[in-house]
Amino acid sequence: MTRFFTGHFIMWFRNLQVYRLGRSFDLSPDMLDTRMQQAAFNGCSRMELFAHGWVPPLGRHGQQLVHAANGYLMICLCKEDKIMPAGVVRQLLEDRVAEIEAAEGREIYRRERMRMKEEIIVDLLPRALTRISNLFAYIDTRNGLLVIDSPSPARAELLVSQLRTTLGRFPATPLKTLEAPAGIMTRWLNGDALPRDFMTGAECVLKHPDPEGGVVTCRHQDLNASEVRNHIRGGKQVVRLAIQWRERLSCVIQDDLSIKRLRFEDVVREAEADTGADDAVSRFDLDFTLLVLELAEFLPALVQALGGEALPDGAQAGAGAQGEVERAHDVVDTEPA
């Protein structure tokens, strides 16, 4: 029986892993939904350690596996894990080893220990508790991007891998810039002017390329202070930097271009209060539209601020979201999924 995570969905992304699509995404929402239905989430069987599959982004409020709005396709991967505490398995193994050694008067070696450990895990599987988590993402078909709400690249790769399995082919690579972000962020804190609309926040992490050179973390501090520049003159580089953009959002940029602690300011979210979206589906649709329109302007601006995008072979950048995207407080026009 198909099981869905029934908790309240969170529409505003908090962390971003961004991928450049290797070719234009031509599947319609209906076609994508049909393909994803074949890999829908069914949960763990009694003898599986984990399982994952696609679920409706709207949770219990929807049936479609794709939620579409203005060329943006929201999807959600659900993952279920059996909770197998390592300490419990280790204790059961030690008890069984001790019992056999005492009864048979012989020592249990590594290969037999591993076999016994596997037997213990198989025995525990049907009784194990489970943990369910959802991973949201959207495909920006206009600009050729996949944006995943994930704090770690490894977790994001699970969703990309599942897309490749579901669609047969899904060329996508992590977004990269022509110059290393660490170099540009370091120059910003060393006196270079930031690009228009960008400001530094009050947090950074500086790391020396030499593993023995140390790491310095600054929080709630004026990043223009001489102490920070002294660390830079000593050879450290900025690998993590808090920034603000247009007084509309703030986030922390990492040297691998991951975006953490993304926060949309009140001026962006005020559009929620100005509409009559009082049911869960309407609010989800509105939040999704506001989210993607804001990021469709911010992401190209960030890439440009970091020196421009390094496109993989065969990939084409989007048609320029900045000139096409309408502000959310002007027009909100969505398509049904």
Describe this structure in words.
The protein has 337 residues and is of the alpha+beta class. It folds into three domains: 17-83 and 129-174, no CATH class; 86-118, no CATH class; 181-273 and 285-310, no CATH class. The protein is 34% helix and 23% strand. It contains nine helices and twelve strands. It has helices spanning 29-37, 86-104, 110-124, 153-167, 181-189, 226-233, 266-273, 280-305, 321-324; strands spanning 17-21, 50-54, 67-69, 72-82, 130-140, 145-148, 172-174, 198-207, 215-219, 237-245, 249-254, 259-264. Strands 1, 2, 3, 4, 5, 6 and 7 form a seven-stranded antiparallel sheet that branches. A five-stranded antiparallel sheet has the order 9-8-10-11-12. Strand 10 and strand 11 (249-254) form a beta hairpin. Helix 2 (86-104) crosses helix 3. The longest helix is centred in the C-terminal third of the chain and has 26 residues, at 280-305.
Query: Strand pairing plus helix content: what structural class?
Result: alpha+beta
The number of strands is 12
Low-confidence residue ranges: 1-8, 319-337
Order of helices and strands: EHEEEHHEEHEHEEHEEEHHH
Q: If helices are DSSP runs of H or I spanning 4 or more residues, what is the number of helices?
A: 9
In percent, how helical is the residue content?
25-40%
Mean pLDDT over the residues: 87
